[in-house]
Amino acid sequence: MPATKAQIRAHTKYNKNHYDRLEMKVPKGEKESITSHAKEYDGSLNKFLNRAVKETMERDKNNG
């Protein structure tokens, strides 16, 4: 069953109030391999990118 217009508005409002958005650019052709890897290991691209950023920031902090 598709979401109603009210559900979509509520979801959009929730996301706007609880999340910031980032845009990421990758060279042509890399998007598919990143998306495929993310689905295999984390289930979603968003989860994968969040994990990658957090792990890299922690590693940089410990090596700095």
Rg for CA atoms: 16 Å
Order of helices and strands: HHH
- What's the pLDDT, averaged over the residues? 96
Task: Describe the largest sheet.
Answer: none
Q: Quick gist of this model?
A:
The protein is mostly helical.
Can you walk me through this structure?
The chain starts with a helix and ends with a helix. It is mainly α. It has helices at 5-18, 30-41, 45-63. The chain has a domain at 25-64. The protein is extended and about 45 Å long. 70% of the residues lie in helices and 0% in strands. Helix 2 (30-41) packs across helix 3 (45-63). The model has no long low-confidence stretch (mean pLDDT 96).
Which labels suit this protein?
single chain; 3 helices; extended
What are the SSEs and their pairings?
Elements: H1 5-18, H2 30-41, H3 45-63
